[in-house]
Amino acid sequence: MRRIRSLRSLLTAAAVAVAGAGLTALGTGPAQAATPLPAHVFAPYFEAWTGDSPAALSAQSGAEHLTMAFIQTEAAGSCTPYWNGDSGSPISSATFGDDIRTIQGRGGDVIPSFGGYTADTTGTEIADSCTDVGKIAAAYEKVITTYDITRLDMDVEVDSLDNTAGIDRRNKAIKQVQDWAAAGGRTLQVSYTLPTTTSGLASNSLAVLRNAVQNGARVDVANLMTFDYYDGADPHDMAKDTQTAAQGLYNQLAGLYPGKSPAQLWAMIGITEMPGVDDYGPAETFTLADATQVYNWAVSKGINTLSFWALQRDNGGCPGGGAGDGCSGIEQGTWAFSHIFEPFTSGTTAPPSNDFSLGLSPASGSVTAGNSTTARVSTAVTAGSAQTVNLSVSGAPSGVTASLSPTSVTAGGSATLTLRTSASAASGTYTLTVSGAGDKAGHTATYTLTITGGSGSQCTAAPWDASAVYVGGDQVSHDGHRWQAKWWTTGEEPGTTGEWGVWQDLGAC
After folding, report:
1. Distance CA 489, CA 492 (A)
2. CA triplet 310, 312, 314: central angle to 5 degrees?
3. CA separation for the pair 420, 367 (Å, rounded)
4. Do 379 and 248 lie in a common domain?
């Protein structure tokens, strides 16, 4: 991904000392009965260097599958893989093992990803760093057997795209691992995550896939990074660009794999978005409306994977800001993008070994501004044994304070949701989400709150629609403001093009 990595990762990569601690006989254990990924899967990237728990964020967000980024060597010339290139985070059950087993116990899984922007620009992507194909293959096998996973992702971009020797080594190693997996009866998929233009892969990205074909390495998913185009075409219609990029990839795959049917070609395609503002700036802003449009398109085409960079950005903690590792830069509810993409996961998957239900009674209520109301949050064991359920609530509008007591229950127990409103709360109807995160499952329930008699103001104009056509004088609401079109427009997001853009800001509402 074209993201600025954490300071620790950058410092680790900068301290390049050529070393050759190779892997020789790793990952040669017997095949395990790992559960294949669903035929269609939502698997957002998880930033593994943050110190966050992937199992906890998986449960909180509702994303049952994660793509975990990144695995790389500590220094150029090494053949030893580490999470984030940090020698303190080896490929072992002690590093993320408990989290991954928890996710798998819920019926989800993870996709470890090799490479990424930092590795691909510092020579620490393992196929760039290690010149021994057998040792590269052994590193892949170690990750597979350590975490009992069924897909590996290869994030290849920037400098790695032009390292033809590394590309060839990587595909030769993938072929070796696929032969090893087949001999042991192990399910294994390989995805390539690649930068794209709005009309498909550039020639160097396409060359990665062409080399795979030449080496007999099977590519199950070609995953496009549909953001950071840096082509100067401002502003971008991010949902439309996703579709034209994928159509271009489809045409390219048809040339590489002439024996595949249209359905099989679409089933090789993955899409990775960046929620909100990407690295290029506001001209490339992926909105919640874009997410809905892309979701519907992805379902209609039958693509394999939906993803975004990254789970830790799926919140509105920095509205009006730029791209960041911890927030989207736009106004949104926490996990709003995840909730749009969650239903995409479908196909065969294992049910959680321990599970629970989460409900609200009542599930809606009306309150006069300045007063409060409550609801009972109930849980029940639906499979296996009881587990601890950590509760949280999101989506409260300005002037409303939401609290839970207690904030943690054992499945089968209950808690109280209290909503206190101030006199300045805006009259209107709002949806709040109560999330329950257990060690083996995660669920949400929604509460519809109606506020009357408030002194605050709420946007009454229709929300801006990316697909609608507007003419001069039309008004919409967007990001808490009222906007008026100066002339004909469609697809131009209010607030992204400055004072000379089509939309005039009429102020907060």
Report:
1. 7
2. 80
3. 9
4. no
**Residues 420 and 328 grouped into a single domain:** no
Q: What domain range is 498 assigned to?
A: 469-508
| Count of alpha carbons within 13 angstroms of residue 97, beta-carbon side | 10
Catalytic residue among 47, 64, 74, 157: 157
Q: Across-strand partners of 367?
A: 451
Average pLDDT by consecutive 10-residue portion of the chain (509 residues)?
40 33 37 75 96 93 96 97 96 95 93 96 97 98 97 97 97 96 92 97 96 95 97 92 96 93 95 96 93 92 97 92 86 90 76 76 92 94 86 81 94 95 86 75 79 76 77 77 77 73 71
CATH code (residue 501): 2.10.10.20
Residue 28 maps to a domain:
no
Domain count along the chain: 3
Amino acid at 208: V
Is 230 in the same domain as 293?
yes
Q: Is the residue at 458 inside a domain?
A: no
Burial class (CB in 10 A: 0-12, 13-18, 19+), 472: exposed
Tokens of 267: 């089933």
> In angstroms, rounded to a whole number, what is the distance separating the alpha carbons of residues 165 and 384?
50
Q: Are residues 368 and 245 in the same domain?
A: no
Q: For strand 276-278 and strand 221-225, is the pairing parallel, antiparallel, or unpaired? A: unpaired
Active-site residue 141, yes or no? no
Residues 414 and 489 in one domain: no
Residues 300 and 431 grouped into a single domain? no
User: What digits encode the pLDDT tens for the residues 15-39?
Assistant: 333 233 333 333 334 334 478 999 9
CATH number of residue 337's parent domain: 3.20.20.80
9, 332, 394, 455 from 421: Cα distances, Å: 44, 21, 15, 11
266 and 398 share one domain: no
Residues 51 and 194 in one domain: yes
- Please, what is the angle between helix 288-301 and helix 238-256, to 10°? 30
Q: How far apart are CA 203 and CA 196, in angstroms?
A: 10
Q: Which of 76, 185, 83 is nearest to 127 (CA)?
A: 76
> Does 270 map to a domain?
yes
Name the 3-class secondary structure at 307. Answer: strand
Q: Identify the domain boundary among 452, 482, 499.
A: 452
Helix axes 203-215, 238-256, angle to 10 degrees: 30
Domain boundary residue, one of 344, 367, 391: 344
Q: What is the pLDDT of residues 199-216, one digit of tens each?
A: 999 999 999 999 999 999
Helix crossing, 133-147 with 164-183: angle to 10°?
50
Domain assignment present for residue 350? The answer is no
Give the DSSP letter string of 381-418: EEESS--EEEEEEE-PPTTEEEEEESSEEEBTBEEEEE
